[in-house]
Amino acid sequence: MPPQLNVDEVVASRTVETEVSRNVSIPTRLPPAERVVSVNARVELTSITAERDYVVISGIIRSTVFYASADDPSDVVSISRNFDFTDRVSVRGSRPGLEAIAEMLISDIDFSLINERLINVVFTVASDVELSTTERVPIVEEPEFVRRERFRIRRTVRERNYTRNLVSTTRLSADAEDMRRIIDVESNITITSIITDYDRITVRGAVNSNILYVDSGGELEYANVSYGFRENFDISGVTPDMEAYVETRIIQASGEIIDGRRIRITTNAGFNVLVVVEEVIEVPTDITVPDRYPIRRTVIVERVVTEERTRILERQQVTVPEGSPDVARVISVNGNIRGGSLSTEATRGGVIVSGVVDVNIIYVADLPQQPVYFIPGSVTFSSFIDIPEVRENMQVYADIDINNLTGTRVSERAVNVRLVMDINLVVTERVRVPVVTGITDEPIREPVEPVEPADYITYVVRSGDTLFLIAQRFGVTVDRLVAINNIRDSAQLQVGQQLLIPRG
Question: What does pTM read for this prediction?
Answer without folding.
Answer: 0.65
